[in-house]
Specification:
Largest sheet: 5 strands, mixed
Strand order of the largest sheet: 5-6-1-7-8
Structural class: alpha+beta
CATH superfamily of the largest domain: Reverse transcriptase/Diguanylate cyclase domain
Distance between the termini: 53 Å
Helix content: 25-40%
Length: about 425
DNA sequence: TCTGGGGTCCTAGGACCC
DNA sequence: TCTGGGGTCCTAGGACCC
């Protein structure tokens, strides 16, 4: 039998993690916010039942705290990342190949089942093991292509009768599910494509699976062609077990409050730059291109302004201070007085492997030795205590939180990554 | 007052080359 | 009157995902 692809993903991951450490909240509606406590990005089942929508602004649901006992959490990315890491370790024990697709889901390749029902049993075993090892509820979708496995896991979440596991390797079962699935629920089909597909009379996943792939390619793109083929059971994408190195690093934030002075904005950009370059060094890469952007809120009635600027460095590097010098100059060029800035960001791109760099005849080369040591030492110390060492342009520490700092009013403890935050079990 | 952040891939079109 | 054509590279923008 053919190899089988499984998609394992955590049910409402962020909410499930928060509940894992707060069993007292069991049964209550729980939501987790985006950064800055702006919008709702995760809801558990009771919260969904209250009609809270994905992406809904927090202020629109805040009345439900009083009325319905809604519990709100800020995004605790450190905590979710750590639980994700633990889950991946458990999943690795089931499969030779694993693609960590996102923080809350992974594709696995599994040997095909030897008898009817064997695959479903394996799916249940995976689900049970993740729950035992990590404490998180997952859904498991099994099929022969990634797109079908995605569809299967979606069905495993949607239909309670499946109890979280769907084996979609059987073609008859495939057709049945495809015909009751709206095309907009297919992986890779967003709102724009849905609209265009509907205009062609393609409404269900089945319609797409049965369409002529060549025609789809001509009208849309190779991406959608692949999707259509995968729905029909033809494997077009393999697992990415050793992902390509990243193409860009972005660090951007909406501000906690509007920023109206240049020095504050520079502080924010400097902090984003420090974070981005730290990530760059972690990946052992050097970057040649730097982009900054600043903008006002697109939602308010304030006068609008948005601008960005990209600079090429004379040579690729990973030294924070080099980038910081550029950021200041670039901000001077795009800063305009009189606006209430809501968001800014820094992007690094055009990466190189530092061990394969060309020597530049016409530009001074960086004096790498000393700077390298400084950066490495800084990363080491900051790795132990976040934010212990900072550049002057990032602003003072231990003062009142700067205006640009994001809001995290409902942040839970870092239960698993800080000694002072370890949960305490009370035994009666 | 209050609407996320971090990615990827593809395509069209312009610049440039011979 | 009559103004090449094909290939490649780059970039901006669109669409998607979680």
């Amino acid at each position: 039998m053919n190899q089988v692809i499984a998609l394992v993903d955590v049910d409402s991951m962020y909410a499930s993690v928060e509940l894992l450490f707060r069993p007292d909240l069991h049964g209550r509606p729980v939501v987790v916010c985006s950064n800055n406590d702006g919008a709702i990005i995760t809801r558990n089942l009771p919260a969904k039942a209250l009609g809270i929508k994905m992406g809904e602004p927090l202020f629109k649901v805040q009345h439900l705290v009083q009325e319905k006992g809604l519990v709100i959490f800020s995004s605790n990315t450190t905590l979710y990342g750590d639980l994700s890491r633990r889950m991946m370790i458990t999943l690795e024990s089931f499969a030779a190949e694993i693609e960590e697709y996102s923080v809350d889901e992974a594709f696995l390749t599994l040997p095909g089942g030897s008898h009817k029902g064997a695959l479903e049993e394996l799916g249940r075993e995976i689900k049970a093991r993740v729950y035992k090892d990590v404490g998180l509820p997952v859904s498991v979708g099994l099929s022969t292509t990634k797109t079908l496995a995605k569809l299967a896991s979606r069905a495993a979440k949607k239909y309670p009768k499946t109890v979280g596991v769907v084996d979609l390797t059987d073609p008859i079962r495939q057709r049945k599910l495809l015909s009751i699935t709206d095309v907009s629920d297919v992986w890779g089909v967003g709102s724009k494509l849905t609209k265009r597909l509907r205009a062609l009379g393609i409404h269900t996943a089945m319609d797409l699976a049965e369409s002529d792939p060549k025609d789809i390619r001509a009208r849309f793109s190779v991406m959608l062609e692949r999707t259509a083929r995968e729905l029909a059971g033809v494997r077009c994408t393999e697992l990415e077990t050793a992902p390509e190195s990243q193409q860009q690093i972005v660090c951007s934030r909406s501000f906690g409050s509007r920023v109206t002075d240049k020095s504050s904005l520079n502080e924010a950009l400097a902090s984003f730059t420090a974070t981005a370059t730290e990530r760059l060094r972690k990946q052992a890469r050097v970057a040649k291109s730097l982009t900054i952007f600043i903008r006002t809120s697109p939602f308010s009635n304030d006068p609008r302004y948005s601008n960005s600027l990209t600079a090429e460095l004379p040579y690729p590097c990973d030294d924070t201070s080099i980038f910081l010098g550029r950021v200041r100059v670039m901000l001077n060029k795009i800063w305009r007085d009189g606006y209430r800035y809501a968001k800014a960001g820094v992007m690094l791109s055009d990466f190189y492997d530092p061990s394969h760099l060309q020597v530049d005849l016409f530009n001074d080369q960086p004096q790498n030795g000393k700077r390298d040591t400084v950066m490495r030492l800084m990363d080491q110390i900051n790795g132990e205590t976040r934010g212990a060492l900072r550049f002057g342009s990032q602003g003072q520490r231990n003062q009142v939180a700067p205006r640009w700092q994001m809001n995290q009013s409902f942040l839970s403890p870092r239960y698993t990554t800080r000694f002072s935050d370890l949960p305490i079990a009370k035994i009666r």
